Amino acid sequence: MPRHYYVMDLGTARPPLPRPDPIATRSPTTDDAEALALLMMDAYRGTIDYEGETVDDARLEVAGYFDGDPILEHSWIGVRGGSVVSACLVSKQDDRPLIAYVMTAAHAKNQGVAAWLLGRCLDTLQAVGYVQADAWITDGNAPSERMFLKAGFSKA
């Protein structure tokens, strides 16, 4: 499935998004790997980004994220009722931040959680001096395209 490259000038002012209630946030750790793999399966199953992957495939994908070049201090997971319900994971690509994964549990979609976590990632990246953030979005993933465009990204 083709993917499109999106960029954002982090100097662009964005209005703050309301924090979804009740949601707690924290940066991910490797201890979250299993919860993130299960979240990935729940979030992507039935969407354009799902290609029949298994939980083991998701575990490998999450392990690859942690073994790659993650920017954990600017990545955020959303926790509700003790469960991880959403995540926005940032890594580096060509020395720039890449929004590598944005995922939300099926039962928590369309509640603004992912958009809020994305905004939080962008705000913290900007605060430490990053000037651009990148993303790759699967062609036809309209919900992701809308969220990223609303956040200030543009298709490159």
Describe the structure.
- The chain has four helices and seven strands, in the order ββααβββαβαβ.
- The chain is α+β, with helices and mostly antiparallel strands.
- Helix 1 crosses helix 2.
- It has a seven-stranded mixed β-sheet.
- The mean pLDDT is 94.
- The protein has a single domain, classed as Aminopeptidase.
Topology of this protein?
Layout: E1 3-9, E2 24-26, H1 33-44, H2 55-67, E3 76-80, E4 83-93, E5 96-104, H3 113-127, E6 132-138, H4 142-151, E7 154-155
Parallel strand pairs: 5-6
Antiparallel strand pairs: 1-6, 1-7, 2-3, 3-4, 4-5
Compute the number of helices: 4
Please state how the strands of the largest beta sheet are arranged side by side: 2-3-4-5-6-1-7
CATH topology: Aminopeptidase
Number of strands: 7
Structural class: alpha+beta
Outline the low-pLDDT stretches: none
CATH superfamily: Gcn5-related N-acetyltransferase (GNAT)
Major beta sheet summary:
7 strands, mixed
Helix-residue proportion: 25-40%
Intertermini distance: 18 Å
The H-and-E topology, N to C, reads as EEHHEEEHEHE
Principal-axis shape equals: globular
User: What's the CATH architecture name?
Assistant: 3-Layer(aba) Sandwich
Give me a quick take on this structure.
The protein has 156 residues and is an alpha+beta fold. Helix content is 32%, strand content 28%.
